[in-house]
Amino acid sequence: GTEMESSAKVTLFEDIFEVTALNPDGKKFERVNRLAATGTTFECDLLLDLNCEIYNVKDGDKITLVLASTLHLDGSPADHFSFDPNATEPTLADNYEYVMHGRIFDVSYKKDGIVVISASYGGLLMRLTGDQRHLSQVLPDMRLFLLLKKD
């Protein structure tokens, strides 16, 4: 169908992650949980800061994580990077529970085709490590959305 084709343009990366640890280095900020998780399909390693007052994730939870260049289902670029809860047009965000907007500030390539992607979502950090074949669409300085939902 057409819906799948259009979402393919929008989605840069998607996998289901299993949370393996919360705050592995101790809790640094009262409102922030840093979670460590492993991708169930592409076996990427994820470190992600979440505002735990808004969205609470527990050790052992399975969460779907999507990185997307825009929330418009037709793939048209994000014209503004604010999230409008009153918008009538359906967006990618409708299917998810937690949405952040941020920027990739570092992409570094390691040996054996491994890439480490670092992003900041308004000061909340993400580090995603995995095979560059699965992460090839995520580029330095790219602005992007991160979407989460619990399975």
Automatic annotation (TrEMBL):
<dbReference type="GO" id="GO:0006351">
    <property type="term" value="P:DNA-templated transcription"/>
</dbReference>
<comment type="similarity">
    <text>Belongs to the eukaryotic RPB8 RNA polymerase subunit family.</text>
</comment>
<protein>
    <recommendedName>
        <fullName>DNA-directed RNA polymerases I, II, and III subunit RPABC3</fullName>
    </recommendedName>
</protein>
<dbReference type="InterPro" id="IPR005570">
    <property type="entry name" value="RPABC3"/>
</dbReference>
<keyword id="KW-0539">Nucleus</keyword>
<dbReference type="GO" id="GO:0005666">
    <property type="term" value="C:RNA polymerase III complex"/>
</dbReference>
<dbReference type="GO" id="GO:0003899">
    <property type="term" value="F:DNA-directed RNA polymerase activity"/>
</dbReference>
<dbReference type="Pfam" id="PF03870">
    <property type="entry name" value="RNA_pol_Rpb8"/>
</dbReference>
<dbReference type="GO" id="GO:0005665">
    <property type="term" value="C:RNA polymerase II, core complex"/>
</dbReference>
<dbReference type="InterPro" id="IPR012340">
    <property type="entry name" value="NA-bd_OB-fold"/>
</dbReference>
<dbReference type="GO" id="GO:0005736">
    <property type="term" value="C:RNA polymerase I complex"/>
</dbReference>
